[in-house]
Design brief:
heterodimer; A: Immunoglobulin-like; 7-stranded mixed β-sheet; 50% strand; B: Immunoglobulin-like; 6-stranded mixed β-sheet; 5-stranded antiparallel β-sheet; 11 strands; 0% helix; 52% strand; globular
Chain lengths: 113, 111
């Protein structure tokens, strides 16, 4: 039973560029949430996707956008990268948007230089 | 805005000692989760508590949810070096709401 998988594991981008991160949810899960974890901090909620729609959104600018595909996988896109976007980006999957718990992938470490 | 606080922020102990870490909020949560995270990895779910006063045990780890569902504690008995990591608590105000994470307690167990 595959858990949550994310790709790539590491990424280096230049300021102003755009990046796409990918996530495949745990088998049987249909809801994907994205989090940003800066060094030394807890994860911060970016948004949640269910039924291919953004259902909830945290306090992140419009430069952060996403998509969910019919197979429940998801992408996180960040435009006009800033140095402050450097972080570990985590994807979590759950069974439905009202699930009491979520399971995380290993994350994508994004470094903006 | 819901906030979760965790204490202590850092904890360094010797193998075999007991410890308790705390997760506190002024908000009520419908559920609360504890995760353990190692450097460069994603958080791994340890337990979910949903009922006020609930106590759950996972081997040497004991989790308690406060009666008012505003706080939680994690107690580790006879800590081992393998327990080293960042312990995160996360809560949801209601089912369907996003999880709010605390800043974490970084535990180091020295052999």
């Amino acid at each position: 039973d595959a858990g949550v998988t994310q790709s790539p594991t590491h990424l280096i981008k230049t300021r102003g560029q755009q990046v796409t991160l990918r996530c495949s949810p745990k088998s049987g899960h249909d809801t994907v949430s994205w989090y940003q974890q800066a060094l030394g901090q807890g994860p911060q909620f970016i948004f949640q996707y269910y039924e291919e729609e953004e259902r909830q959104r945290g306090n992140f600018p419009d430069r952060f956008s996403g998509h969910q595909f019919p197979n429940y996988s998801s992408e996180l896109n960040v435009n006009a990268l800033l140095l402050g976007d450097s972080a570990l980006y985590l994807c979590a999957s759950s069974l439905g948007p009202r699930a009491a718990e979520a399971f995380f992938g290993q994350g994508t470490r994004l470094t903006v230089v | 805005t819901q906030l979760l606080e965790q204490s202590p922020q850092f904890l360094s102990i010797q193998e075999g000692e007991n410890l308790t870490v705390y997760c506190n909020s002024s908000s009520v949560f419908s559920s609360l989760q504890w995760y353990r995270q190692e450097p460069g990895e994603g958080p791994v779910l340890l337990v979910t508590v949903v009922t006020g006063g609930e106590v759950k045990k996972l081997k040497r780890l004991t989790f308690q949810f406060g009666d008012a569902r505003k706080d939680s504690s994690l107690h580790i008995t006879a800590a081992q070096p393998g327990d080293t990591g960042l312990y995160l608590c996360a809560g949801a105000a209601d089912y369907g709401q996003n999880f709010v994470f605390g800043p974490g307690t970084r535990l180091s167990v020295l052999p």
